[in-house]
UniProtKB/TrEMBL annotation:
InterPro entries: YjdF-like (IPR014509). The chain crosses the membrane at residues 30-51, 96-113, 125-146, 176-194. This is Uncharacterized protein. It comes from the Bacteria. Keywords: Membrane, Transmembrane, Transmembrane helix. It comes from Blastococcus colisei. Pfam families: DUF2238 (PF09997). The lineage of its organism: Bacteria, Bacillati, Actinomycetota, Actinomycetes, Geodermatophilales.
Amino acid sequence: MDGRRILLGDWTPVVRDGIDVLRVVLLGGAVGYAVTGRTGAAALLLVLGGVTVAARLVNLPRVYDLSVTAAMVLQGYGEVLGLYDEFLRFDDLVHVTLPMLTAPVIYIALARVEVVPDPRDETHLPHYVGIAVVTAALGIAVGALWEVYEWRSDAWFGTDLSEGNDDTNGDLVHDTLGSLVGAALLVAWARFGWGSVRRIPGVNTHEDVSA
């Protein structure tokens, strides 16, 4: 196996690349925590692992497949390993990186079901502006919904996720920054015509397959 194949993947039909290894890390972690009786941690990793499996099934470009998988690993193991409590700025890191990595993926998923235009449909400025606005809005909306979840979880289940208005406002600011960066990255991806599906190995041209 040469270096290019190690990096870009297509190792085997089942485990294609390092991204699949990350999926196994999530799902294997779920099994491990279930065996040791930590059912909450197991359930969290199982759900997040399921998200990464869904990302594989829709055949995302490698970069965005890696993005959503890395985001789920960061969120899942950050929670179960207590990194939010151990590292003061870990929460800020997550609130920037998750919208940055996942908002473009949500846009691509919506394009697959023809809710929004495919990034490759047009090449004029208003199209790119529209991609940026919608992608940023999706990321910000997801961040806001998460804050609502934290607020209600504390009230209904006795958790301690929300640390007050300052924490919530700070999280929303970081969500917004991450969403804006993610939107810019998706526009750049569309502008350079890199496509919205996983490339065929060895092919360095635009795909013929729409989102």
